[in-house]
Amino acid sequence: MTAPLDPEADALRARAAAELEEIARTVMPFGRCAGRHLHELPAEYLQWFATRGWPKGRLGVLMQMVYQMKADGSEVAFDPFRSPEARLGKADK
Predict the structure, then answer these.
(1) What's the whole-model pTM score?
(2) Residue 12 is assigned to a structural domain of this protein
(3) For a tag site, which of 3, 43, 55, 76 has the least CB within 10 Å?
(4) Structural domains of the chain, count
């Protein structure tokens, strides 16, 4: 027997997937990590923003999402966007 369709759950999954894709393609535009994709930012760098203030607008919102996911141990959600070497922890940092 299949589960009944849940439009709210489907909408939430679609929004989460879209946000993950946006995080994966957004590049840090400034600072010492300029040029890195948001999901590649070190937790310590994100922690600095958490204590001093996030950038305004969508960039800040996405960075907060990445920070929270890393803090919660949900960083595995970014694995599909990483190279095989990065997934194994062998990529240059």
Answers:
(1) 0.80
(2) no
(3) 3
(4) 1
